[in-house]
Structure formats: structure tokens, C-alpha cells
Amino acid sequence: MRKVVLGIDLGGTNIKAGIVDDGGEVLKHTVTPTQAEQGRDALLGRLRAIIEDFRAHSATAGLLPAGIGIGTAGYVEPLSGRVAYATPNLPGWTGLQLREALEQASSLPVAVANDAHAMAVGEAWLGAGRPYRDFICVTLGTGVGGSRVIDGRPDYGGSGFAGGFGHMVTAWGGQPCNCGLSGCYEQYASVTALLRLAAEAGLRREELPDGAKSIFDLASAGHSAASAVIERYAEYAAVGLISLAHVLNPQAIVLGGAVTAQGDALLGRIRRIVRERAMPVYRETPIVAAELGNAAGVAGAAKLAWDRLSGNNF
Prior knowledge:
Belongs to the ROK (NagC/XylR) family. This is ROK family protein. The protein is an alpha/beta fold and 314 residues long. It has nine helices and twelve strands. A five-stranded mixed sheet has the order 3-2-1-4-7. A hairpin with a 3-residue loop joins strand 1 (2-10) and strand 2 (14-20). Helix 3 (115-126) crosses helix 9. The longest helix is centred in the C-terminal third of the chain and has 25 residues, at 224-248. The chain is globular, with a radius of gyration of 20 Å.
């Protein structure tokens, strides 16, 4: 009987889940609204329903459920699977023994990680990180997250919370951040920051019906203010990547998140700025786009489950 695992990517908007074999083939994929505002118990109920569907589908398809992996927003203790801290976007999630709860619900081994770590593992397994032994993955989305991957496995740091790249201070005394500091990288390199820069440049909300994408559309149509916004944003994004390259010396930087869908309109600028401003020995660090898109979190969570089953999880 073919063994499979359930990979779950728990985000603030949707819960993406996939039944995945040990070669990375997704045999079934589902998307469920997170509805986190309904509270912890309701969200755990949705996860239990996804697990029940996993079991039911496996039974009818002749598959053998072997384990579960989940990548969740928040700071996770990877050994215990406890969510040490989560923002109010996931009410009641702080302190949750997530691994224990899902193992009780499924009677299967469960691996739990922060969602950025899971995405990076997915890229290492099936995506842009495959050619590299040591790379960092940076996500430029609503916030900024990331992970360092070495030999296909995330570097969790001393307590499990490594990868908080978005809260690396790049402009001391700059924009206030919801972490309590000011000048954090995500206040300059996130999609939220890009939209703020556009507003500061005088671009009106009605000019941006598709959010960040509209800024790039305007720039490609010759809108000088939009072009200036993108150039400034690329500078801010590059500054953080230069710092990470200087400290970690990765073989490559894999960039994911919403804005990287714009391709060379953004990545080309970032690469140019890094080559111009990084110390000479770091200037040729490859900066590549993530390949798996929205599938990275599910793939990475599934790989974490397979690693736990093989004893190679941490």
C-alpha cells in the first residue's frame, strides 16, 4: 500500500492542505478558509476535519496515511511543536501545543514548524533551492519572513525561532514596527511597505486596483512616480539581503512572496543594487525567484512529515 502524508500550510486567510507521497507528488489538494477570528477551538475543528478527509480519501484510494506536517504562522518550538508566540491574526494560538493536539486528533506522528521554515524546506525539496546545499529563503509578503536551509533542513537556531529576518533593524529610528522596535526590515521590504511608499509618492488608491501589481503595471506603462517607487523599494529590499549575505554567506538567496511574481521588474533591480553595494566577495551571490509559489508551504510541511518518519527531523 502506498504511504502518504498530509502537508498543511496554515495561513491567516486560508488553510492549504495536500496529500503527498515521498516523491513530492500531490495526490489531492484542498483550500479551506482559516476564519481565525472564530477562535482557537473553531480553527482546531477545521484542522480535525481536514485530517478526517485525509483519512477518508486515503481509505477509498488505497493509500496508507503515515504522518502529518504543518507549517503555521507564529514562532514554533520545533521539538515540542508548541506555538510559543503568535500575533493576534491567530487568536488563542500562543501557547498552543499544536503537535500534541493534532497527534491526538489523528493518531499519527506530526511535525510542526513555522510557515516560513516550511516554505523554505519545500523550495529545498522541489523548488529553487535544489541546486544549493546552503541557502536562505526570504519571503516578501504582507510581512517579511525567512529561513536558512542547510542540507535540506532548516536552521532553527538556539530556541527554534531563527529566521526572523523581517525584524532585523535596517533603519534605526525609522518606521515603527508592530514588534515594538522601529526601522525593522519588513517596514521597508514588505508589500505593506511598498503600498505605503506608493501613497507617500502621491499614488491614489483608485490608481491601484490590484494593489502592488498595479504599481508595476503603471511603471511598465511609463508612469515616472511608480517607477521611482519601485526603485526605492528595490533599494530597501536589497539592503536587507546584503546584510544577510554579509552575515550568513549563503550559496544563494531564494526570494518568495507576492511581489516576486513581478519577475525581473523587481528582481533585476535588486540584483543590480546588490552587485553595486555589497562587499566584493558577496556581490555574485545568486538571487533567484522561488519556484513553487503557493504550493511551497504544503510541500515543505509534507517533507517535514517525511523527515520525522525517517528520524531526520531536527
